[in-house]
Amino acid sequence: MTNFLKKLFSKSQESSTPVFHVDKQDISRESSTALYEKAKNYFPGGVNSPVRAFKSVYGTPLFIEKGDGCYLWDADGNQFIDFCCSWGPLILGHNHPKIREKVTEVMQNGMSFGAPTALENELAELILKNNSYLEKIRFVSSGTEAVMSAIRLARGYTKRDKILKFEGCYHGHVDALLVKAGSGLVTFGETSSAGIPKSFADETIVVPLNDMKAVKEAFKQFKNQLAAVIIEGVPANNGLLIQDQSFVEFLRDICTKNKTLLIFDEVISGFRIGFEGAAGYYQVKPDIVTYGKIIGGGLPVGAYGASAEIMGNISPEGPVYQAGTLSGNPVAMAAGIAQLSELAKPGFYKELNAKAAEFVESIQRYADTHNYTFKVFRVGSIFWFAFTDQTIQTAEAIDPASMDKFKIMHRELLNRGVYLGPSGYEVGFVSAAHSKIDLEKAKRAIFECLDIVFKK
């Protein structure tokens, strides 16, 4: 053990006596603020994706200049240990040398052709050889596009129209899935965005998570009408709502009995908790799986896959039309080959998940020792900070008032050089680039911030 680590352990904050820390001075955001003010002239709300606007936390958005390993630097020169990891796909960290080298090599020959390349074959073979739940896949350009295509495929294959989704699961900004539950146990979706016709939402049934009774009732009310049930493999867009094995197996059984397809949206969980994602974690075979940017090393890409029989319905082989000019883009394929080759190495997930487990368990021990109402949920290398002492498996169980505590914690963490996504509903990620020293630094910052939050 290095002298540095010895000092860290000897000064461990995991003591029985709280040591309250004062709020640190806010980091400089002068350059980021100027860039944000300028951006408001060009983009709605000054951003190109809503959560980036920092509306749920203090201050203006940070404009990022570079990333390397587990670190980010913003326009003001502030350095952060990053647990956002571009919302998950950077499982190897920022600017990984093997990804950078592979992309640079491929770019010398051109960056877009709108035609097949051998790189598509190479990445597809790498995925299919290491994923027993898929036989064929189709590359697209985003997770939203993958889900949209999977829904169309399910409807085309089953000759049915209605989709069942779960409250608290997010599946991208697809019209039919950007809906929320109404006031009943089993309800037609209510649009959660302007611009979505009610007729679109009426094709989507929304029920609570972890509620077998509601699912059974939906199948009873809409017998022989449900094309698919879609669920995040591990719901992680609205807190980390880890579902019981029995519930996932129940979904598989009821879908099979009713000839309804089961879709796992693995845009977050896929290749994150294991090479086979949530399907492998639960050992439950979905009918269709969707993936996002992790298969492209963080570059814009997605995919959906299924059995050869189901995928045979996709054009040009079958009647379900789906196309994309940049699908299988060579640069994204190159990044994906480099990243997934690392993930497929023996022991990769065992080491990463063990590192994440130790990190989370240390934080939980500290909170428990100090009797803080705080719980860290984890699956694989995904974690979520929640200001509760209860197990949370549904969106309804999250106390909105707890977000006030996260708001304080987020600011104090930034001031101590730790970056989380700017919302208390968002999960965090440990990457292979986070060293033990990096995680020790982050833990010390988190301990100090918990003291501040619970002192107020």
Structure description:
This protein is α/β, with parallel strands linked by helices and 456 residues long. The chain has two domains: 3-82 and 353-455, Aspartate Aminotransferase, domain 1 (Alpha-Beta Complex), CATH 3.90.1150.10; 97-343, Aspartate Aminotransferase, domain 2, CATH 3.40.640.10. It is built from 14 helices and 17 strands. The strands form four sheets. Strands 4-13-12-11-10-5-9-7 form an eight-stranded mixed sheet, with helices on both faces. A four-stranded mixed sheet has the order 1-2-3-16. Helix 3 packs antiparallel against helix 11 (330-343), helix 7 (212-221) runs parallel beside helix 8 (245-257) and helix 12 (348-369) runs parallel beside helix 14. The radius of gyration is 22 Å and the shape is globular.
CATH superfamily of the largest domain: Type I PLP-dependent aspartate aminotransferase-like (Major domain)
User: How many domains comprise the coordinates?
Assistant: 2
Secondary-structure-based class equals alpha/beta
The number of distinct helices, counting runs of at least 4 residues, comes to 14
**Main β-sheet, in a few words?**
8 strands, mixed
- Low-confidence segments: 1-18
CATH class of the largest domain: Alpha Beta
